[in-house]
Amino acid sequence: MKRLKSWPVWMLMGLIVVALLTVGTTRDNGPLTQSDRIDSITKHIACPTCDGESVYVSRASAAEAIRNQVAREVRAGTMTDDEIIGSIANTFKAQVLLVPRATGIDSLVWIMPIAVLVCAVAGLWAAFRRWRRDNSGEASSDDVALVEELLAEDPSDEDNV
């Protein structure tokens, strides 16, 4: 039981979690066919005329036009998925992205809350550990003097209160 409470074990578990999250987020099998690739791209683009729908789901004329543009660019095979999404985002002033880009300030929006949470938990852990270490369970001399003073008071004074 003491092994679970030691900090090296917790550090090892933290490293394992970070490694698994890193592998999970960077691993990309990618779509196999052109149709799968078109579907994947259109699921990440919001319909410019619809409220909260992706181009993949929407049947609006603007969504159909974007789907056709994506299909043309995929068939041409000259651009990557990110480049296709980027060209459409530039056309619509980046208001069509359902998922923020994983670069620059957009990535900070996703990373900062997690970093703040980790720092807050680490800070609380350190504070609680320090408080537990500082509070050895012994009373200070002022506390002892106060208790002795209260115990020494005449009990008949309490009846007058």
What's the layout of helices and strands?
Blueprint: H1 2-5, H2 7-26, H3 34-43, H4 61-76, H5 81-91, H6 104-134, H7 141-152
Helical fraction equals 55-70%
**Residue runs with pLDDT of under 50 for 5 or more positions:** none
The pLDDT mean sits at 79
Order of helices and strands: HHHHHHH
Largest sheet descriptor:
none
- CATH superfamily caption of the largest domain: Cytochrome C biogenesis protein
Number of domain modules = 2
Strands, total number? 0
Count up the helices.
7
- Strand residue percentage: under 5%
CATH architecture of the largest domain: Orthogonal Bundle
The top-level CATH class of the largest domain is Mainly Alpha
Return Rg in Å.
31 Å
By secondary-structure content and strand pairing, the structural class works out as mainly alpha
Overall 3D geometry?
Answer: elongated
How far from one another are the termini?
53 Å
Under CATH, the topology of the largest domain can be stated as Helicase, Ruva Protein, domain 3
Describe the structure.
It is elongated and about 95 Å long. The longest helix has 31 residues, at 104-134. By secondary structure, it is mainly α. 11% of the residues are buried. It folds into 2 domains: 2-99, Helicase, Ruva Protein, domain 3, CATH 1.10.8.640; 105-154. It starts with a helix and ends in a 9-residue tail after the last helix. Helix content is 65%, strand content 0%.
